[in-house]
Design goal:
The protein is α+β, with helices and mostly antiparallel strands. Helix content is about 35%, strand content about 30%. The chain starts with 11 loop residues before the first strand and ends with a helix.
Length: about 180
């Protein structure tokens, strides 16, 4: 893996989620896909834990307060991370088209090692059945710099579509996909 192409600094909390920032260089600033213009995101990350989704479930289930709960969840994530640091492994050979409300995006699925201990700790602590998140990176969207969260396998199934066939081959050529897979 070339460190000049992708690096993973410490985790960050942004937009209600714990994220792994990634430094990715992409050659195309915009692409055409399904007769729409998609714009390259200015920053890249892989969302690891949607804290806002976990909070919503806990508030609905137990009527807990949001502010202290967010801090507790972040503390549990940090404690689990200290024992088992999530690590970016690779980009998968899997591109997906995502549609939700007024936005559309193109994501690449990724492998993140050592993520499951975080979810196990949260499940045990809060006695809730939360699924591990499908790990992905939003590359392009029709609304500049606005990705679409995919917080569960159910969301992956309902709001995304696996890009296949000739459409996939053209998209791979347009975005320089082979360079991503070589990392």
């Amino acid at each position: 893996m070339e460190s000049s192409f992708i690096t993973s600094p410490p985790l960050a909390f942004s937009g209600g989620s714990v994220c792994m920032p990634l430094d990715i260089e992409m050659p195309q600033k915009q692409i055409e896909f399904r007769d729409k213009t998609f714009y390259l995101k200015e920053e890249f990350h892989c969302t690891l834990v949607s804290v806002k989704c976990i909070m919503a479930e806990l508030i609905e289930k137990h009527g807990r307060e949001g502010g202290p709960l967010k801090r507790q969840i972040l503390g549990e994530v940090e404690a689990a991370r200290q024992q088992s640091e999530p690590v970016f492994v690779e980009f998968k050979d899997e591109l997906r088209y995502v549609i939700k409300e007024d936005n559309q995006s193109i994501v690449i699925m990724v492998n993140i090692a050592k993520l499951e201990p975080i979810f196990k700790r949260l499940r045990n602590k809060y006695q809730i059945d939360i699924p591990s998140q499908p790990t992905h990176v939003t590359l392009y969207s029709i609304i500049p710099n606005k990705g679409i969260g995919i917080p569960s396998p159910k969301a992956l199934e309902t709001i995304t579509e696996l890009i296949q066939g000739n459409e996939l081959e053209q998209l791979k050529a347009d975005i320089g996909f082979e360079k991503l897979l070589q990392l």
